């Protein structure tokens, strides 16, 4: 039955989970599902991770919220940990990826006004990008259908195709109002699109030449998922601003906008804020997450296991004509199909695998927990390869009942 009291902003699959453990979710009928999506790159440590659970419970017995009108000791600790890992200088905490990006956009505009003396500052953003659903982040997002019906959009964004350095150079020649570039190191929502290896380095160079801020949206790629804590750390460079969220709280809402150099001095008292942002509860959870990722070497694990999973798919279905490409950067994994395969998410769910199909319905996207075991990864590759094979052969879900290893019942 339709849940009419909830606005229909999502097309939901008909399953409700009541419990999770590690890479597994359990529904209200007792079926178990291998979670290869992690709540869209959120539960990087899997479900019910003891360190996170303990931190949340312990903090709940002390204090949940005080507001940013007072010192929050574990917010300070989290900021120190994150700035040390990222080589940035300071942090603004919000509650989501969109809020982290809003902070970055506001920071760039204020940098334009106060440092560059530009009345109408503009930010270069990319085609097919995704930065959030608030008005400014939606306007920055490169997806016309997500924007449709919400016009007028926020002005001050100039768009370039992704992974096209010449397009950025051309904008540099023609637009004196540019103050920043906002880009995902790997585009997530549009289908795990991985740019040329030196794309970010070239953007860094152009930003330096033009006094632009280089701002990276690591809401999806951050927190170990790409194989480094932040994806830009593959490129031996530092951005001026980096945003993250999702995997930072492992399910407790938190977002962060980190800055360094001149960018770290732009947002001063009274210029920006958030009631909840970085409250004691979310910071306790995030500290446990960050410490676990670092202490358990999960960045390295993401790289090794992500490559192994992608190689497994290449081995099993890489040569099939219905598979265009298998690609990954750590545990951002995509099987791109030659034809749209939107129904695959439903079929996979029937066989007990949770994933998502994005990139115009052609990209099977997997964002498994970084803590996934070798045998779970093998199960994922074997089961999903078979599902994709069967799907491509145009068989339907009743045929799937015979496939091996697709255990559903707990
Ligand atoms: C790269 C990127 N930026 C921003 C967002 C928005 O994050 P949130 O939904 O937490 O606002 C997302 C969400 O998918 C994302 O992938």
Beta-strand portion reads 15-25%
**Ligand identities:** pyridoxal-5'-phosphate
- Shape annotation: globular
CATH topology tier name of the largest domain: Aspartate Aminotransferase, domain 2
Total strand count, please? 15
Largest sheet: 7 strands, mixed
| Element-level helix/strand string | EEEHHHEHEHHEHEHEEEHHEEHEEEH
Helix content: 25-40%
How many H/I helical runs? 12
Distance between the termini: 25 Å
Mean pLDDT figure: 95
Kindly report the name of the CATH homologous superfamily of the largest domain.
Type I PLP-dependent aspartate aminotransferase-like (Major domain)
- Widest sheet: strand ordering: 4-10-9-8-7-5-6
CATH architecture of the largest domain: 3-Layer(aba) Sandwich
Poorly predicted residue ranges: 395-400, 402-410
Q: Output the radius of gyration.
A: 21 Å
Helix and strand content put the structural class at alpha/beta
